[in-house]
Amino acid sequence: MKPIKVAVLEDEKIFLTELVRGLRTIEFVSVVAYEQTSENFIKKVRETHPEILLLDIYLKDESTTGINVAELFNLPVLFLSSQRKDFLDGIDSLKFKNEFPVEEIGKTFDPIKLNAIFKTFIPRVREFQKGQKVKVKPIGRAHV
Q1: Residue 143 CB-half CA count within 13 A
Q2: In angstroms, rounded to a whole number, what is the distance separating the alpha carbons of residues 38 and 137?
């Protein structure tokens, strides 16, 4: 299986470092970008074209949230947050108004759990991608 490209937004430096290290141990995941601020993250996403966004929801010292960042892109999202209960309405809204897969998990770092989550999330992402590649050709007018 071709590795799936993931971009990570996490405002806590130590957790970001551990998270990226853990993701790099998953053979079917390729970390193409990781940042601590939403502004830098948005730039990196536009440069690297990831297939999945792994986002912290609550970004301290910022007026934006991971949900706001997710709304900028038509990409599958895996939210990672210790405060996800406070943001369930926003997550549900994102799930219902978009076709891309959206999931949320707690912020405890466990590489085995993360690996298992990606194994179930990636097939949904691949199905979403297949749907995005379908193009309908316009019907030409018949010549009389």
Answers
A1: 0
A2: 38
